[in-house]
Amino acid sequence: MADAGAPILEVADVTLQFGGVSALSDVSLSVGEGEIFSIIGPNGAGKTSLLNCVSGRYRPQQGAIRFRGEDLTRAKPNARCARGIGRTFQNLALYNRMSVLGNILVGRHNQLRNNFITGSLYWLTGADREEIEHRRAAETIIDFLEIAHIRKATTGTLSYGLRKRVELARAMALEPALLLLDEPMAGMNQEEKEDMARFIIDLNEEWGVTIAMIEHDIGAVMDISHRVAVLDFGQRIALGTPEEVMADPRVKQAYLGEDIEAEHDHRAAS
Question: Keywords, A to Z (predicted)?
Answer without folding.
Answer: ATP-binding, Nucleotide-binding, Transport
